Amino acid sequence: MPEVIFTGPAGRLEGRYHPAKQKNAPIAMILHPHPQFHGTMNHQIVYQCYYAFAHRGFSVLRFNFRGVGRSQGSFDHGTGELSDAASALDWAQAINPEARACWVAGFSFGAWIGMQLLMRRPEIEGFISIAPPANLYDFSFLAPCPSSGLIVHGDKDAVVPAKDVNTLVEKLKTQKGIVIDQQVIPGANHFFDGKLEPLMETVTGYLDMRLANVR
Fold first, then answer.
1. Residue 73 is part of a domain; what is its CATH number?
2. 132-to-146, 168, 206 alpha-carbon distances in Å
3. b/e map of 158-171 (b: 16 or more CB within 10 Å)?
4. How confident is the model over 111-136, as a mean pLDDT?
5. pLDDT reading at 1 higher than 80
6. Number of domains forming the structure of the chain
7. What percent of the chain has pLDDT over 70?
8. Which residues form the Xaa-Pro dipeptidyl-peptidase-like domain (predicted)?
9. CB of 82 within 8 A of CB of 75?
10. C-alpha angle 169/80/113, rounded to 5°?
11. Which domain covers residue 46, as residue numbers?
């Protein structure tokens, strides 16, 4: 799990990178939750997703947004963080020029950033959005949603009520040729306390299903 440092728009960004053994392996990038609420690249859900992709042959990158850990800069309410994510993807693509595809996964704030990145980067062919904060941030930019993906959330989420996520999913489901897979984890709160195992079973099950269709 090599430690990496690369240049972002506000200075140095700190990350962890797992290179795949195959040269043309797909890239995955994992985005962490809100920097002002203890969100870092070492968050348990981010860490577990990182390894879920690594075990499936991806080159995987997770990194700290500006102002978190050893990443330079300061919190920028999403605008700068989106630029950080774009720079991180640029870096991953530069060292994986033969990568055939790209995925993005994010938790909470990271899910919001990841879905914005999806709109800007047509090479992203799949996403995993964990507890996207549909009531806290504007997701209207997803018109239309360019890639199929998984949205997973808990039915006991007090931070982002299930009805708000349902509204988002219903809107996204109207796109032709795009499949949004929605999974609800029973009894899970926003942080999936005590529900990490069923969450990761859902994530890995979705990944395996999508990858089986590729081969």
1. 3.40.50.1820
2. 17, 9, 17
3. eebeeebbeebbeb
4. 97
5. no
6. 1
7. 99
8. 17-138
9. no
10. 15
11. 1-211
